[in-house]
Amino acid sequence: MPTSKDVARLAGVSQSTVSYVMSGRRPISEKTRKRVEDAMAQLAFQPNAGARALASRRSQVIGLAIPFVPDLHRGSMMGFISVIAASARQSDYDILLVTDDEGPQGLERVVGQQLVDGLIIMQVEGDDARVPVIRNLPVPSVLIGIPEKHEGLKCIDADFELAGQMCVEELAKLGHETVTLVNWQDAVVRRRVNYVKRFHHGVDKAGAATGAKIIHVPGRATIAGMEKAVANALEQTKGVPAFIAPEAANQDLLVEALNNLGLVLGKDVSVVVNCSDSLAERQRIPLTTIDFEPDQVSRRVVQMIVHDLTEPTSRSHEALELIRPVFKHRKSTIRPRPQR
């Protein structure tokens, strides 16, 4: 296995120069840097992570703090994790998962032991106990989600309020007079993540603006529970019914409940769900979707934390960035027949 000595010999420089090229701790001419990098490529040299960390005082690792909550839709979480990890790797960073087994003290531990250079915080609650801790940590952090008190923090999220508005406005354009919102599962609602509140606000705001009646029903974890919730909503519905299911965990239950009640998507009822394009288009009746753009959120959060790590002098200490959702019409939404 080639060493830094081998690289130095091939590049015609000192071993310390190779170290400076890898760590960036001293300015090196572009010509010398290229010779060293060419030698590293020719030898297929991989720097020792521990040695590089000692030399640069950086671990080249970003901590990803994510609570694994029972009943949380794991597929969507893994989507975030995979894109974040791939994006970080493109910037020469690795990802260390930090679960909530230790509580906020786990963040203090990984930073105190210099295991990570910065933090990405996921599944942020309104009064998240991690927020006071990260405010006092000596490393940069970016939150996916928006706590109630976000002053002085860097946050990014999908624009859930706009997503709620878009769903109701698009359904109202089709002529629907009543729109039913199927809420997130209870496990999510109990955690008081405020994207739920923001989506609700957007739905209610658009309902008031368009004149559409908004019915709220709780998310249900069983088909029997979902059928009951849907039946109750149908009793209050005027005209052709329309349903919005923004949580992926409710999608299959809602579609099955409507089928069991004799309603055909795209013919008797309109349905808007949150799922990937590939999943929506694989359904027997392709589903109209509201896409919260999780991949874009994931890529952007990595860009933000990497910028703060590599350009500390230009780092802002507060930012709030909202990613615009995308509404895509497919065959599960219809134009209601005129009422006679």
Automatic annotation (TrEMBL):
One of its GO terms (molecular function) is transcription cis-regulatory region binding. PANTHER family: LACI-RELATED TRANSCRIPTIONAL REPRESSOR, LACTOSE OPERON REPRESSOR. The keyword Cell membrane does not apply. Pfam families: LacI, Peripla_BP_3. Residues 2-56 form the HTH lacI-type domain. Keywords: DNA-binding, Transcription, Transcription regulation. This is LacI family transcriptional regulator. The lineage of its organism: Bacteria, Bacillati, Actinomycetota, Actinomycetes, Micrococcales. It comes from Sinomonas humi.
